[in-house]
Every structure is written in structure tokens, then in C-alpha cells.
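Sorry to interrupt, but I need a hand with the structure work. Could you write out one complete protein record for me, on any chain you like? Could you add the entry underneath, on a fresh line?
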Amino acid sequence: MNGKLRHFTKIAAGAAAVVMALSLGGCMDNGTIMTVDGMKIRNGVYLTFMQTAMQTASQRIEEIHAEEAESNSDTSSDTSSSSSSDATSTESSSEEADIFTESLDGMSFSDWVKQNTRKGVLRFVGTQRLCDEYGITLTEEEKAAINSSVQESWDEEDAYLQYLYGMSTMGDYYRAMGIEVESLKQIAIVNELNTRLFDYFYGEGGEHEVPQEEIDKYIKDNFAAYRLISVRKLDYKGDVLFLDDELKELKDRAQSYADRLNDGEAYVDVLYDFDLLEAQNSAKADAEESYTEDNADGLTKEEYIQKAVDAASADKGESDDDYDEVISKSQSVLTEELTDYIFGLPADGKATVYEGAEAYYVVVKLDIMNIGWVDANEDEVLHEMREDDFDSLMDLMCQNYDVKQNDYLVNTKYSPEKMR
């Protein structure tokens, strides 16, 4: 992602929230909702942090319900649900409910949102105070670039928002909540200062620099690089296979792919053969469905199907490296079982076959330190390693700030309930 656009992404994360704040439209964004350590906080800044807090709370509650549903399912059945997938993340099946009846961390939804909105505002101030103390600044050119990217995102047509809310741009969406672009620009600039403040403490040469050996060990323990071919337990029509001999045929095919890879054949070549067979099977199924005796070419059914199969094609990759994937142990897109299997393999580039509930997986585990991923993601890893420490530092810095708030605005006019 473009570095400049990343700042707007942070503050625009709430654009996919399940609630909408049309009732807040028309408020004065540049009014002052509170003063923190002598710094005036405009309404739009506060509302932006509140919207982010609401989305975070909603996501956490959804995850809790998903875990509860999964736990209840596990206790009621010893077999896996046929609707689950080895290669996709679990989605919540909980029924929709009034989010404001939920509780989180022992607080009502509304109180949790207000507390975390306040925390966001305090850190907004604390970042600026600490940067002033340590001489961390942005050039005018850097500020201009950030402002430009925020303005661009604000003005850009957005089909997703148009579909969900009938709003053409991100600016329309935020303005409906009483947030103007200047508030988002302020937050984007402070986001960048916050990143530089983190680097000042934990980056190379920083006050609490993290040794490279510790970073490397964390990467190896928590991330895995791999390539994957999924031979699904389906026939060419997409019907689930149950018979032992049919499943053995699929497992043998998966093993043949693994053997070819271990014999030194390029991954792109093996994957091409797999993709081509998948395309041919799909073409065969479609042709069987669409065949009529009076087809334009006057072909028999066998000829018609064969013609479709012969016309099927697949794209072929240029480099094996293009198919390198990386998963996090704690946030894997694969099932827990397949993730554990990958992490348990040696990173030696050898292909093995893992049997999942719905497929045979040809798995190649790679040395994550040798695929270029580390260079591109080491900063993000460092943030993951020290984010809790940094948050504690910020909380300590902010805990004694003098806060004077407009109680009517915080608790009534701009209460979380108005975000319904």
C-alpha cells in the first residue's frame, strides 16, 4: 500500500461498520467537545475516534459470539460441520441483536465505546506532547502529502458506500456523522507522528531498541511461509466424494504433485497441470449440462464434451516466488488444524500431503527468512512485538492529563446511541 494512503486507511477503517450515524448530521465539526492538557479537541476528532471504537467493539462482540457458537457446536457433535472449510476462516453464525444490549470487559457497550473514545483522544494529545518533547516533527512537505492523500480519499467515488448507504464518497459518509475533512487530516498527521514516536523508542538506535536476534526469533516462531495446492474431495461435477477408492485416487493425485515437486520440478509447472485439470473438469461438467442433440456443430454428446474439454485453458505463472504465502500463527486464514500442520513442518522446501476434512493439501513450507517477506514486513512485526509496551507507555503518559469535557455533547448529543 502507498505509504501516504496508509494514514487514511487507519482512520477510515470504520467505513465498513454495521451502524450508520445519519442522526449526527449537521453538527459543528470544528466546535470544541473537550480540552485535554490545554489542547482543544474538535467535535470531528472525537466523533472519528468514537466511530473507530464502535467498530472495534462490534468486531470483538462478533468474535465472542462466533467462539461461543463454535464451542456449542463442538459440545453437541463430535464431527466437523460439512459447511466448514479447511482453507477459509470461520465466520460468525450468531443472530443479529441490538448491539447496545451487549457488554464488553464488564461494561455496557455504550460505556466501553465512550471509555475507548476518550482513550483515543488522550493518546492523540499524548502523541503530540511526546513528539514535542523529543523533537519529532514532520516537514511541511510531509504534512502536505498526508493532507493530499486524505483529501483524495475523501473525494473519491466509492461504489461500496453507494451500494450500502447511497453515498457517493467517503466524504459524504463522514459528513453524515458531522465529521469534516480537517478532522481526518489532523488525525492522519498525528498517526504518522505516532509511528515515528514508536520508532524513536523501539527502532534501530532507539531508547528501547529491539535486538535483531529477538525480531528474527519472533518471526520464525509466529509466522510461516508456504505454498499450497488443494485437491478437493469432489468429483468433476462438484459433488462430495465418500467412497474409499475415489478418495484414494484423489490422495494419490495429491501425492503425485508432491513427488514431482520433491523431484525438482518447478511449482509453477505442477500448479499449471493442477489448474488445467480443474478447468477441464469444470468445462466437462458445463458441457454435460448444456449439451443438446441439435447443437450447432451437430456433435455427439461425447464429441461435444471433448471439444469443451480440449478448449479449456489455465494461466501459467512465471515464477515460483509469486506463489509464496505467509500466515500468522494467531491470525491464520487457514483452519487451526492445517495451520498447526504447517507450523509443525521443517522449513526445508519439501512437499508433503496433509489430509483435511474437505481436501488433500500439497504443502511446501519455506524458510521465511529467505523469501523477501521479512524486509517488507519487519516494521509491522516490530509493532506487533512492542505494541502493548507502547500502549502502556502512552497510557502512563496520558493518565494525569487534565480533561475538561462538555458533558452534554459527550453523554447526550454525541452519545454512542446516536451512532445507530
